[in-house]
Amino acid sequence: MSKDLKVGTSASRSFTIAPDQTIDFMGEDARVYATPELVRDIEHTCRDLIFERVPEGQDSVGTIVSIVHMAPTLLDMEVEVKVTVTEIDGRKVVFDVVANDPVDTICKGRHERFIVDVAKTQERLRAKAAKVANA
Question: What's the predicted TM-score (pTM) here?
Fold first, then answer.
């Protein structure tokens, strides 16, 4: 693991909410940022922060997401997702997460990721696929 990955390291990304990131089940006038899309954006922001700081051949996978989605964000609004490393325990990296639109804090929470060796992970996945094929 890189020494550049340490407690206090933070990153932020901004997103403009597009139609495919919104719910549609309440009609066109109620299109707001969908929680699963918010989670995806949180995961990508955390993953990018780690990926930029670990050696080649390593990456990370999400293991826990615990957020409160507190306010709606309308279609075409901008959202900023800010993540901060709060704990590193071996290969586990824990983040505090906050997301804001221009009006509200829309989300607070925590996300955990685990740093993995890509080649070893691919090997384990092939072994699992072989078990499924033989079941």
Answer: 0.93
Q: Which CATH number fits domain 10-134: 3.40.50.720, 3.30.2130.30, 3.10.129.10, 3.30.980.10?
A: 3.10.129.10
DSSP-based three-state secondary structure for 95:
strand
List the domain boundaries for the chain. 10-134
Give 73: exposed, middle or buried? Use CB within 10 Å, 0-12, 13-18, 19+.
buried
**For residue 2, what pLDDT is reported?**
65
Give the model confidence (pLDDT) of 77-120 as tens digits. 999 999 999 999 999 999 999 999 999 999 999 999 999 999 99
Q: 44: phi > 0 → left, psi -120 to 50 → alpha, else beta; which?
A: alpha
